Amino acid sequence: MRCFRAITLPLLMSLALVTPLAAQVKGGGGGGDETTVFEEHDPVMNAAIAEAQAGLPRFLAEVLNADGESQGRGTVKVAFQTFPVDHGDEIIWVRDISQRAGGQFTGFLNNAPVNLGDWREGSQVQFSYEMIQDWSLTSPAGRLWGNYTTRVIADLPGNGYLWDYLEPAPLPPGW
């Protein structure tokens, strides 16, 4: 089972110009932000993740400077193994990403996790390229490109409002 994060509506509205929609589990646990649970082999969600990962090299080339720093541009959604109890992966947005030697990345959690031990919103995390499940980039109009997993969630009953924050096409023009 995989847990995807979603920003609550008031927070989403206040952050729409600077952060991606964090996506995925209704109800969730004690973390605060809404989440939506998908089974590990969900074909629609897995197709969205594959599409996001296909565009990841271009996204990283666009947002990382020569020093490997995003400088606040763009965010990525990363799959972390839950702990201390294994509940599968919790997939959560990470901001202020930096690419380090050996292909590792660091960043800061952009949401309050549900099943990631003592980690909190703002906790610094380390992850590999392979752990990245999605990406987000804000358009000049303040809407969001990428967010492939959020697009799947937006199609679920009661989540249509999420489309108001997304660019109609997931890729910027010319990509």
Distance N to C terminus: 32 Å
Helix/strand order? EHEHHEEEEEEH
Number of separate strands:
8
In the predicted model, the low-confidence regions spanning at least 5 consecutive residues are: 6-32
Structural class: alpha+beta
Radius of gyration of CA atoms, rounded to a whole number: 15 Å
> What's the story with the biggest beta sheet?
8 strands, mixed
Q: How much beta, percentage-wise?
A: 25-35%
Shape: globular
Total helix count? 4
User: Helix fraction?
Assistant: 10-25%
What does the average pLDDT come to? 84
Tally of discrete structural domains = 1
Task: Label this structure with key terms.
alpha+beta; eight-stranded mixed β-sheet; 175 residues
Description:
The chain has about 180 residues and is of the alpha+beta class. The chain has one domain (about 1-165). Helix content is about 20%, strand content about 30%. The chain contains 4 helices and 8 strands; from the N terminus they run E-H-E-H-H-E-E-E-E-E-E-H. Strands 1, 2, 3, 4, 5, 6, 7 and 8 form an 8-stranded mixed sheet that branches. The longest helix is centred in the N-terminal third of the chain and has 12 residues, at about 45-55. The termini are far apart. About 40% of the residues are buried.
